[in-house]
């Protein structure tokens, strides 16, 4: 055990992650690190189901309202901020709870993806790609074997993308990619407990429909209108996200309000299915069933008992 606990609470949208996380956070003296790719944006509150000021007063939350909607924000940006938050939480002697449904954000933290500060289409990459086209990938793989034999063993000789990536990292930093990865595992590795909340499909869909109705009652239409008035147009990535896309289409005269709400409910159901498909292959996740016959308190108690049974040094 590394002595760096990390409780991950994940699952599809509307399954009840936020409510359970609040209760667990209070019981364990934890702090929540959001793993929601839309909650990082300011002024996008109703449509992203951000925790209320009252909820944030109950349990500290991080990585909410980080950037404006027009500011580029990458998975690498999220990873760096999330790891810093988690280090600070550990330094305070508290348990970090990584909570959300954005699978890539969660994996960037739990699997410590390596992101290098390099141009995506820089001269080194163009040179290596050109050599691969002209000479084949075999020569580049031999070069990788010479500078990073350990890294080469982990990459298939015909995987041009990963071979080029590894050589690019070596040239940019002077260190093999395998050493970067090993250092990150040693420095940042966590004692993980990954909990997935699940629910019978029809019950989940009913909750999604109710959530959309509640969003509309809370003024979601006006929230999107204010964003458009601020100059955040439909071409921006956040404005193309679930909910904002449908409501923008309505406000710009493309469809009626009833159709926008219908599409939002349908698209949210499809999104929940994709989330489930993303998370299911991860064997580290321990799934807990939510449902009408099993209240939130019982689920919270289960999670707290699981955490308290672990040899975490907090």
Fold and architecture overview:
A six-stranded parallel beta sheet has the order 3-2-4-1-5-6, sandwiched between helices. Helix content is 54%, strand content 11%. The longest helix is centred in the last third of the chain and has 23 residues. The protein is built from 14 helices and six strands. The protein is of the alpha/beta class. Helix 1 crosses helix 14. The model has no long low-confidence stretch (mean pLDDT 91).
Note the overall shape.
globular
Rg from alpha-carbon coordinates? 22 Å
Strand sequence of the main sheet, in spatial order?
Answer: 3-2-4-1-5-6
Number of helices: 14
Q: In percent, how helical is the residue content?
A: 40-55%
User: What's the helix-strand series?
Assistant: EHEHEHEHHHHHHEHHHHEH
Main attributes of the structure:
14 helices, 6-stranded parallel beta sheet, 6 strands, 314 residues, globular, 11% strand, alpha/beta
């Amino acid at each position: 055990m590394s002595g760096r606990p990390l409780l991950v609470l994940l699952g599809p949208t509307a399954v009840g992650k936020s409510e359970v996380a609040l209760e667990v956070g209070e019981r364990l003296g934890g702090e929540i690190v959001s793993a929601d790719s839309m909650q990082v944006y300011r002024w996008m509150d109703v449509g992203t189901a951000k925790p209320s000021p009252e909820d944030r007063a109950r349990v500290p939350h991080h990585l909410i309202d980080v950037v404006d909607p027009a500011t580029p924000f990458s998975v690498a940006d999220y990873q760096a901020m999330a790891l810093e938050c988690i280090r600070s939480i550990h330094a305070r002697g508290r348990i970090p709870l990584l909570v959300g449904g954005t699978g890539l954000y969660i994996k960037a933290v739990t699997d410590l993806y390596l992101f290098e500060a390099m141009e995506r289409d820089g001269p080194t990459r163009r040179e290596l790609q050109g050599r691969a086209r002209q000479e084949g990938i075999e020569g580049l793989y031999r070069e990788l074997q010479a500078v990073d034999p350990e890294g080469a063993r982990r990459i298939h000789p015909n995987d041009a993308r990963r071979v080029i990536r590894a050589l690019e990292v070596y040239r940019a930093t002077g260190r093999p990619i395998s050493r970067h990865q090993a250092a990150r595992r040693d420095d940042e590795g966590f004692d993980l407990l990954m909990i997935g909340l699940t629910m019978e499909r029809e019950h989940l869909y009913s909750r999604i429909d109710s959530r959309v109705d509640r969003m509309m009652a809370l003024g979601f239409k006006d929230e999107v209108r204010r964003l458009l008035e601020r100059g955040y147009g439909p071409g921006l990535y956040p404005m193309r996200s679930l909910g904002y896309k449908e409501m923008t289409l309505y406000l710009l005269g493309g469809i009626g309000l009833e159709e926008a709400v219908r599409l939002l409910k349908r698209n949210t159901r499809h999104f929940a299915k994709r989330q489930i498909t993303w998370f299911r292959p991860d064997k580290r996740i321990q799934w807990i069933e939510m449902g009408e016959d099993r209240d939130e308190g019982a689920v919270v108690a289960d999670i707290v008992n699981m955490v308290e049974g672990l040899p975490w040094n907090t």
